[in-house]
Design brief:
Length: 106
């Protein structure tokens, strides 16, 4: 439903904000939590590429490979933007469909 997509967008944005803040401040714990969150949300929504990248970044940070983990910032952001754009299109399609249905009922 539209609400599920909106919740997904909110969750992705929340984790992404924390992720970018963690990257800018070099906060390993925040990075670990944010990538874990991105992993879960993207996995639930079927965004497999973002899930895979988040999982890799999460594994790197937990393994103490901070430089490689933080170096994934641009790629994770790029994929998050794509996923958000796709979900926005999906939401628009749902909304358009709902409007059409209402018009047909009138």
């Amino acid at each position: 439903s539209a609400r599920v997509v909106q919740e997904f967008q909110t969750d992705i944005n929340r984790h992404l904000t924390a992720f970018n803040e963690a990257c800018e401040k070099g906060e390993e714990e925040m990075f670990e939590q944010a990538t874990h969150g991105l992993m879960g949300v993207s996995g639930t929504f079927g965004a497999t590429q973002l899930e895979s990248l988040s999982k890799t970044a999460n594994r790197l940070i937990r393994g103490g490979n901070f430089k490689a983990a933080f170096a994934m910032q641009a790629e994770i952001n790029r994929h998050s933007e794509e996923v958000l754009e796709n979900s926005k299109q999906r939401l628009n399609a749902m909304t358009d469909h709902t409007n059409l249905t209402e018009e047909n009922d009138a």
